[in-house]
Design a protein that fits this description.
The protein has 409 residues and is of the alpha/beta class. It is built from 14 helices and 17 strands. The chain is elongated and about 75 Å long. The structure holds L-homoserine.
């Protein structure tokens, strides 16, 4: 029997307990031992739970229990998750987490501790919910030099954008629905302002390029400024709007990494990834594009990835899994102004296209409302150059309503 403890009995934690109980036989046949939930840490009471008598409010009971070999951190947030995970790894216990905020902030440090104490620190569920992505990148694609990763990495925002695109639903209503369905973070600002997607692309970039990429070094925009009008213009340009996390390796050895809403051409593999589904494209130098698709949020999909990591820990107590990157800083990341994109711009005002062409050269435009409301797209240019030209356009009397990058995906 392998004893495990689960820290947190929220959406994901209760899903992990549910799978461990309902899939007991299947998991037993895989590792030859029962995975026994010895303790669950939560400040709340769960009298109706089938394991109600195993709840505790005291982490000390767990860390001091020598029988508990795997600790599953599914509380979310940085504190006290960081302290609990660090202590667990230092005590030589293996840790499984779904906590992307924790891995994005402290991954390098925690991996180093795990290496020191010969413990496993696994976090498949931290990116893409139920989609296998960490393990495939770390194992199956290991022969490749990764050139680019681009993905729809946040289920909540993808759900909101899908509702806006398909049902013409207002932003606020769609967010409320996503919260009710259990996709959103405790504080949904992390979803809609892009931080959750940013943490996930940072984890993938760290894994792909071997050095920790901290979220603070990454230009991040959310979807709060996206309007139904933009959604409709995007469609007229043959695109859909998606929140994209993207990292690209440049020929000078640096990386170009960003999280932002983008117009994605309808023919792109990422364009048809809707609702709470996530899609991640990994471009390897040997494989070309490999695309991972599935449910990126929700109780059982995310818990499924957590349980797979628990099984992996149970199979690798003696010989730890190799999953590692070293600490890094922002010196290998280019500034957002150097990043090259074609841009979508929505404006108001008479003669705005003629004025835009004077500044940007030839543009593609679509107008409505008798020519007073217009959207246009530019050729590719460095973002810093784009913002300067945009200021010239505004100085020329054109009202700028919104700008969105166009993803070459
Ligand atoms: N809030 C996250 C999302 C949950 O919507 O994708 C999964 O990480």
């Amino acid at each position: 029997m392998v004893s495990v403890a689960i820290l947190g009995h929220g959406v994901v934690g209760s899903g992990v307990a549910e799978i461990l109980l309902t899939h007991k036989q299947k998991l037993f046949s895989r590792i030859g031992e029962e995975i026994y939930i010895k303790k669950v840490l939560d400040l709340r009471e769960f009298p109706d739970s089938p394991i109600a008598n195993r709840f505790t409010k005291d982490f000390e009971e767990i860390i001091n229990d020598l029988e508990i070999r795997v600790i599953v951190e599914v509380m979310g947030g940085l504190h006290p998750s960081y302290e609990f995970v660090k202590r667990s790894l230092k005590a030589g216990k293996s840790v499984v987490t779904s906590n992307k905020e924790l891995v994005a902030a402290y991954g390098a440090e925690l991996l180093a501790i795990a290496k020191e104490t010969n413990a496993n620190f696994l976090f498949e569920a931290s990116v893409g919910g139920g989609i296998p992505i960490i393990r495939p990148m770390n194992q199956c694609l290991v022969a490749n030099i990764v050139d680019e990763i681009a993905g729809i990495l946040n289920g909540t925002t993808n759900f909101i954008l899908t509702k806006m695109i398909e049902d013409g639903m207002q932003f606020e209503d769609a967010l409320k629905l996503a919260q009710e369905l259990g996709f959103a973070e405790r504080n949904p600002a992390a979803d809609i302002e892009g931080h959750d997607a940013c943490r996930k692309i940072c984890i993938l970039a760290s894994l792909a390029f071997g050095k920790h990429v901290y979220p603070e070094s990454v230009h991040t925009e959310g979807i709060t400024h996206i309007t139904l009008e933009d959604v409709k213009y995007a469609e007229k340009f043959g695109c859909v709007i998606k929140l994209i996390g993207r990292v690209k390796k440049l020929s000078n050895g640096k990386i170009d990494i960003i999280t932002a809403p983008m117009l994605v051409p309808a023919k792109s593999q990422l364009a048809n990834i809707d609702s709470e589904f996530n899609g991640i494209m990994v471009r390897g130098d040997c494989t070309g594009d490999v695309v991972f698709y599935g449910k990126g949020a929700g109780k059982l999909p995310t818990a499924s990835a957590v349980v797979a990591d628990i099984v992996d820990c149970c199979q690798h107590f003696k010989e730890r899994r190799f999953l590692f990157w070293t600490d890094g800083n922002s010196s290998n990341i280019i500034h957002v102004n150097e990043s090259i994109f074609a841009m979508y711009v929505r404006v108001k005002g008479a003669d705005s296209i003629a004025k835009a062409e004077k500044i940007f050269g030839s543009v593609q435009s679509i107008s409505s409302n008798g020519g007073n409301r217009v959207a246009f797209t530019t050729e590719e240019l460095p973002y810093g150059e784009f913002t300067k030209k945009l200021q010239q356009l505004a100085a020329d009397g054109v009202e700028i309503c919104s700008t969105i990058r166009i993803g070459n995906l």
